[in-house]
Amino acid sequence: MARTLPNIILTGTPGVGKSTHAAELAEATGLSLLDVNDVIKNKECHDGFDDELQSWIVDEDKLMDEIEDDIKQGGKIIDWHVCDIFPERLIDLVVVLRTDNAVLYDRLKARNYNDKKIENNMDAEIMQVILDEARESYNENIVIELASNTVEDMESNVERISQWVQNWVKDNKDRGDDDDE
Ligand SMILES: Nc1ncnc2c1ncn2[C@@H]1O[C@H](COP(=O)(O)OP(=O)(O)O)[C@@H](O)[C@H]1O
């Protein structure tokens, strides 16, 4: 069944602003939030907690079993730092948020992450690991990179993505109408 609303992945290194953007975007567009971290915890899609890395050891198969039907319905904002496990056919836009080093460091420090976790995440951001994963996993036309350093960045990102959602809905409706003729 064709989706009438698009699915958007909001991804990027922890601390870049995914969940903040996701909440604002949900409010602006009416799309629903799919907070993958919540699903992992609440539905126990993990094999325990890695104390050293201070993160869940995710069971990706179980996670996909939990969320795939939801994503198939469309209209989801998927917030997670991993972007390459979702089937390409279900995803319409991949937004990779990026944050300058000094700003990201302060945000991670404010979260009381330990030094190792801060270092891992800073390295990942500097090496643009998630951007590369997104570009390898999806058609380059649907992957966009947006700066998330300031509140103004966030506001303009949310406005831009909301506009994209409106256009997507209109284009899909026009296509559906053409098919009906
Ligand atoms: N563009 C931004 N401008 C200012 N502060 C931001 C921005 N994006 C995120 N933040 C702040 O940084 C912290 C981490 O944001 P969060 O959305 O939780 O990141 P993520 O979901 O990517 O881990 C929060 O305190 C949030 O308010």
Structure description:
The chain has helices at 18-29, 36-42, 60-72, 101-110, 115-126, 129-137, 151-180, and strands at 8-11, 32-35, 46-50, 55-58, 76-79, 93-98, 143-147. By secondary structure, it is α/β, with parallel strands linked by helices. The protein has one domain (8-169): P-loop containing nucleotide triphosphate hydrolases (Rossmann fold), CATH 3.40.50.300. The strands form two sheets. Strands 2-5-1-6-7 form a five-stranded parallel β-sheet, with helices on both faces. Strands 3-4 form a two-stranded antiparallel sheet. Strand 3 (46-50) and strand 4 (55-58) form a beta hairpin. The chain binds adenosine-5'-diphosphate. GO terms for molecular function: AMP kinase activity; ATP binding; ATP hydrolysis activity.
* CATH homolog superfamily: P-loop containing nucleotide triphosphate hydrolases
Detail the poorly predicted runs: none
Oligomer kind: single chain
Ligand set: adenosine-5'-diphosphate
Radius of gyration: 17 Å
What kind of sheet is the major sheet?
5 strands, parallel
Provide mean pLDDT, rounded. Answer: 95
Report the principal-axis shape. Answer: globular
Beginning-to-end CA distance, first to last residue:
18 Å
Q: Return the string of H and E elements.
A: EHEHEEHEEHHHEH
* Beta-strand fraction estimate: 15-25%
How many strand units? 7
What number of structural domains do the residues give?
Answer: 1
Number of separate helices: 7
Q: What is the helix content?
A: 40-55%
| Strand order, sheet with most strands | 2-5-1-6-7
Q: What structural class do you assign from the helix and strand content? A: alpha/beta
CATH topology: Rossmann fold
CATH class: Alpha Beta
Name the CATH architecture: 3-Layer(aba) Sandwich
Subcellular location: Cytoplasm; Nucleus
Region (NMPbind): 35-58
InterPro entries: Adenyl_kinase_AK6, P-loop_NTPase
Protein name: Adenylate kinase isoenzyme 6 homolog
